[in-house]
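Board notes, transcribed. Complex of a protein with BES.
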Amino acid sequence: MDYAVKSGQIDKQKTGCLILGFFEKGNLAPSTETIDQLTNQLISSLIKRDKLEGKAGESLLIEHAPGISAERILLIGLGDADNISEQDFNKALKSTIEAISKCRATNALSTLTELKVKDRDVHWITQQTIQLSETITYQPGELKSKPETAAACTSISFSTNEKAEQISIKEGISTGEAIAKGIQLAKKVSDLPGNICTPSYLAEQASNLGKQYKKLNITILEEKEMEELGMGALLSVSRGSRQPAKLITMEYKGGSAKEQPIVLVGKGLTFDAGGISLKPGAGMDEMKYDMCGGASVLGTLAAIAQMGLPINVVGLIPSSENLPDGDASKPGDIVTSMSGQTIEVLNTDAEGRLILCDTLTYAQRFKPKTIIDIATLTGAVIIALGRHPSGLMGNDDALCNELIQTGEKTGDRLWRLPLWDEYQEQLKSNFADIANIGGRDAGTITAGCFLSRFTEGQSWAHIDIAGTAWKSGQNKGATGRPVSLLTQFIIDRANG
Ligand code: BES
Ligand code: MN
Ligand code: ZN
């Protein structure tokens, strides 16, 4: 979809579909009022005739609109005229995008930019429209032999006649497009099956991004180099796989050379069968999504490189498969991590923390200001929090609060769980420094505790996205979370 700003008299605008807002109690938005007067009360009479209530998300497509240049009008309900909440606006946007992708218009003009949404500005309205439009029109079926039919509408314009608003809308368009592009990249690689999206494939995607953006440098560590670095934990996971593990480094240099980077670490497990501690068969296909953390790092780096943000960010993606094999790690095996700590692998299905811990140690060489890791780490986080927020843990209250705030702002929400010392007890091993599982209780927290052993003295946060990175069931598919959260966090850091 293409996006642009358009100015001019609203009734003279040539467009396939003019999007106009209305409210409860028959109130009309300013442009809607103008059009209503110029069309001999077409709109207000249709609202009466069809008993439209003006509730958020209600819609009416008027296929023919005599007296104005637009071919069609899409009327969109926005709720209370004096208080447009973010939720109501999002509902309205969703039905707007659904309606225009179903109608036959090839382009649309939105007047929703003239609305005052509570605590939000026109930049946000624009950005939100683009992100939602790209999310709703995304089709995951790229491997179907016949292409799915695409919507007729290929462009949306935003209407304004004010200079300052034009600038905000333009900025909203570039931010929205960059974030939408990042989300889309994350979804695309996440939805690909394990036989296509292998560690080598992920590395290739990163390298392609490196070719697109001058400030983005990609290096790939091979297993041999990981061995030299002493990454015994990471390598223990890939032992059972014929696909070689990769450690992808994406260095984005938008800030000054001496500025410490934000380091993002994303779990890139391209298929998690559990290893020798094999998972049950039902729903195992969804373990192709065990690389969604890595995909979110890929998408976030793509978005910030696209925006050219003035900040330094490093993305690290440890990538491997976790499969059973004659050479695979066995329960009870003891491995030595890059940090020197020995780990008793009591369950080979708790592999995410093993590939992450060596990467967290490796991250130290970038002298990070902040480390954030993102991982589909535990099924337990779905039991604890369901599928609405991602789980947040960390050793830095200020950082955690900043992330929570950004989550509220973007709608890509987080909920924090404690990493108290008491939980660390559960990771005791009789034979090694630490065990890789902590029993049934608080599985998400003990996974976080495990990672905390590798980030001591660092400002660090861990985001468990096992419940939020994809949807199961009929609408099975990746969500692209938490790309919008991470990108907004970096935008705010770059501006602050
Ligand atoms: N990738 C899984 C976590 C997962 C499970 C995400 C289900 C989404 C849905 C992870 O590698 C894993 O298997 N974790 C185990 C840990 C356990 C063995 C301590 C789990 O959650 O069962
Ligand atoms: Mn696992
Ligand atoms: Zn896993």
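The pocket of manganese (II) ion (ligand 2) is lined by residues 272, 274, 322, 349, 351 (CB under 6 Å). The chain has two domains: 2-159, 181-495.
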